[in-house]
């Protein structure tokens, strides 16, 4: 793909016409992390955070974010999601979020998966910022997409140095 599809011949932004595209089953998986102090992560693991179940609330926020993607991203088509699933796990110094979104539609679901991850990570930040303002969100990326005309795509594995 060598062209930006969200610009017309005159260079004006427009919403891509997907009316003639086939409705197919499409899946997208995205991930991201939020790094934090060990004490903050321990509070999350033990469920001792004053604001409640951080990971549970972040999971629901991610689902809500995926459902609102068409409202947040100006040229993104609103689509009828058939599945949104979030996995949140604690690592040594971070919480990792992975979102899987599915749809039967004429357009992909990558933006929904990325929005779900981003919303969940921002929710963790919001809930924990009073005790750890130095948290850092990174690594938000598409891991895989399936379906549609372009078929399957998978991200290259990240190296150990990243």
Task: Describe the 3D structure.
The chain has 162 residues and is α+β, with helices and mostly antiparallel strands. The protein has four helices and five strands; from the N terminus they run E-H-H-H-E-E-H-E-E. 28% of the residues lie in helices and 29% in strands. Helix 2 (54-67) packs antiparallel against helix 4 (110-128). The longest helix has 19 residues, at 110-128. The model has no long low-confidence stretch (mean pLDDT 90).
Number of strands: 5
Major β-sheet profile:
5 strands, antiparallel
Helix fraction by DSSP (H/I, runs of at least 4): 25-40%
Number of helices: 4
Give the CA-based shape. Answer: elongated
Distance between the termini: 27 Å
pLDDT below 50 for ≥5 consecutive residues: which ranges?
A: none
What is the succession of H and E elements?
EHHHEEHEE
Structural class by secondary-structure content? alpha+beta
Average pLDDT, all residues: 90
Structural key phrases:
162 residues, elongated
Summarize the structure.
This protein has 162 residues and is an alpha+beta fold. The chain contains four helices and five strands.
């Amino acid at each position: 793909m060598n062209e930006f599809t969200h610009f017309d011949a005159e260079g004006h932004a427009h919403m891509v016409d997907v009316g003639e595209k086939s409705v197919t089953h499409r899946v997208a998986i995205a991930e991201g992390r939020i790094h934090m102090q060990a004490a903050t992560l321990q509070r999350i693991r033990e469920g001792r955070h004053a604001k409640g179940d951080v990971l549970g609330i972040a999971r629901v926020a991610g689902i809500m974010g995926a459902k609102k993607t068409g409202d947040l991203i100006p040229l993104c088509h609103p689509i009828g999601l058939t599945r949104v699933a979030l996995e949140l796990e604690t690592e040594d110094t971070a919480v990792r979020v992975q979102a899987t979104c599915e749809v039967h539609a004429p357009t992909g679901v990558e933006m929904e998966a990325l929005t779900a991850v981003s919303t969940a990570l921002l929710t963790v930040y919001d809930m924990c910022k009073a005790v750890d303002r130095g948290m850092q969100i990174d690594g938000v990326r598409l891991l895989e997409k399936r379906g549609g005309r372009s078929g399957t795509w998978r991200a290259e594995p990240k190296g150990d140095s990243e």
